[in-house]
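User: Reviewer 2 asked us to show a designed sequence for the structure in our supplementary figure. I'm pasting the structure tokens here. Could you produce the per-position amino acids so we can include them in the response letter?
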């Protein structure tokens, strides 16, 4: 889809994409085979989305998939629950 968008913008003299924001983390590395080489060839920036896989890689969820309670954190003396 990115390649198609680049082609359309060039054919019609439109502004082209300058970046792509695909999901990328240790559990989802699909972009490495096609998207990364394409972005390198055409000078597009890659901004990874969900680098900690929605909290899975950060330890937010217990082994059984049940969310565990995350302790509140403080910012400037105020307690902020992390949801």
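Assistant: Here is a per-position design you can include in the supplement:
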């Amino acid at each position: 889809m990115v390649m198609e968008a680049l082609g359309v913008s060039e054919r019609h003299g439109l502004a082209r994409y300058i970046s792509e924001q695909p999901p990328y983390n240790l559990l989802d590395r699909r972009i490495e085979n096609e998207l990364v080489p394409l972005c390198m060839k055409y000078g597009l920036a890659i901004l990874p989305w969900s680098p900690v896989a929605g909290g899975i890689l950060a330890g937010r969820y217990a082994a059984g998939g049940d969310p565990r309670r995350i302790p509140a954190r403080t910012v400037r003396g105020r307690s902020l629950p992390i949801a």
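For the response letter, you might also mention the following. The mean pLDDT is 79. The chain has two helices and four strands.
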